[in-house]
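ok trying again, last paste got cut off:
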Amino acid sequence: MGEKRTSLYLTLISAGGAVLIGIEQLGLDARSLLWTAALFLLMLLVVGLVTFQRLIERRTRATEYLRAINRVHRYFVDLDPSLKPYFYWPACDDVPSFGGNGGAFMGLRDVIAVLNSLFVGCLVVVIVIILWPGLGYTAAISLAVVAIAIAWFAHARYERRNCCQAATKAGKYVRFPKDEGD
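nice, full thing came through this time. structure:
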């Protein structure tokens, strides 16, 4: 489901960008398209945020399913310990972690977070140009860079918070924690 949602999101980006470029090719004044661009960027941001949330939820559910499978593994290992080497995951129900492997860039969520952050930056540029046309592009781009960084860190913090909440909730149900020797 995450790939379909991401595909839809990327299709909206491409189609909307093509429409804006097509309209601009008609020879209209670029300033007249700013409100259209702002609304388009806002719509993309909303769809992107929903997509990001759904991808986080998908990862949480996938981790819960893997932990449930590990619990079944534990059942069989308890019945016959010679089966242990044949299971890919350890026979415990507190692995894998909800937080992932801890890498800086871990998948679709991060692609969506980057795109959302860029759209926030573009939206800041458009809004600055609309509201304060005399401010100049350098100031607008500087504000956009700050907004991009803030949006990226907000996405990361939101994701980390959701992972911690899921881990805390799932911790109540752990019956077979990982042994130190595993």
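cool. The first helix runs from residue 2 to 25. Residues 23 and 48 are 24 Å apart (CA to CA).
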